[in-house]
Design a protein that fits this description.
The chain is α+β, with helices and mostly antiparallel strands and about 240 residues long. The chain has two domains: about 140 residues, Jelly Rolls (Sandwich); about 80 residues, Arc Repressor Mutant, subunit A (Orthogonal Bundle). The chain has nine helices and eleven strands. The strands form three sheets. The protein has a four-stranded antiparallel beta sheet with strand order 1-8-3-6. It has a four-stranded antiparallel beta sheet with strand order 2-7-4-5. It has a three-stranded antiparallel beta sheet with strand order 9-11-10. Strand 4 and strand 5 form a beta hairpin. Helix 4 packs across helix 5, helix 6 packs across helix 9 and helix 7 packs across helix 8. It is globular and about 55 Å long. It starts with 11 loop residues before the first helix and ends with a helix.
Length: about 240
């Protein structure tokens, strides 16, 4: 699906108030100016496909705003959500560097704003800029750690309740780093949440209802508030 619009704003990166907290975008001086110039700012609506697995790489996508899911589909048609991506994440980095097709499908869960950089321009820029090369290496290391932690969660957590509880806690803490209340917006369907937790949709629905009955969480429309984080943490042990 094509993006909704392609606004041109060469100064957008320098105006971003979150750039200093994002590994990949933390550039200075001429590097930041060039980074702003070679990319195109694009916006997508919710539930739009950015790219599909096995599609030739069209470059990297830096997530500026919004939430996306990265998934893979088997030959039998079974789809598994591998992880979620949010502001500061870089999509398509491995495929672009290796000059291979995308390994996953990237789909928006809500309206998103991304910065796309074509393959040739990105690789040339990285080869000429030590600062960007360092940021790229750190970003790949961060991705590796996240994949490892996700794999460990699925393989070693003994119960579906523990895996679901860990996901809820991670999302709440990431969304409220400087706030006391642990609240976040749930953009996933129960089926998508089940895919991430390695269980069934029916089990996710049952567990969320139980967590709410026990007053461990509170649901306010699409928002979830963690009322008893210690209780959820006990499930993850």
């Amino acid at each position: 699906m094509a993006p909704m619009s392609q606004p041109s704003n060469a100064d957008k990166c320098s105006e971003c108030g979150y750039r200093e907290h994002r590994i990949f975008c933390k550039l200075s001086g001429n590097a930041l100016e060039r980074f702003s110039g070679i990319g195109v700012q694009v916006t997508y609506p919710g539930r739009a496909t950015i790219y599909q697995e096995e599609q030739p790489s069209r470059g990297i996508f830096v997530v500026c705003k919004g939430l996306l899911k990265l998934s893979s589909t088997s030959k039998e048609g079974r789809t598994m959500i591998l992880r979620l991506a949010g502001p500061g994440d870089v999509l398509g980095l491995s495929a672009t560097l290796n000059k291979t097709p995308y390994e996953v499908t990237a789909e928006t869960l809500e309206p998103c704003e991304l910065k796309r950089i074509p393959p040739a321009e990105f690789i040339e820029f990285m080869e000429q800029t030590g600062e960007l090369s360092k940021n790229t290496a750190q970003t790949l290391a961060k991705e590796y750690r996240e994949v490892f932690l996700d794999a460990r969660r699925l393989a070693l957590s003994g119960s579906a309740g523990g895996r679901l509880a860990q996901l809820l806690l991670e999302w709440a803490r990431n969304a409220n780093q400087n706030r006391i209340e642990l609240r976040f917006t749930m953009a996933l369907t129960h089926g998508e949440l089940a895919s991430l937790a390695g269980t069934s949709r029916e089990t996710v629905t049952r567990l969320l209802n139980k967590f709410e009955r026990d007053k461990w969480i509170k649901r306010l429309g699409a928002s979830i508030v963690i009322l008893q984080p210690m209780r959820l943490e006990q499930l993850t042990d």
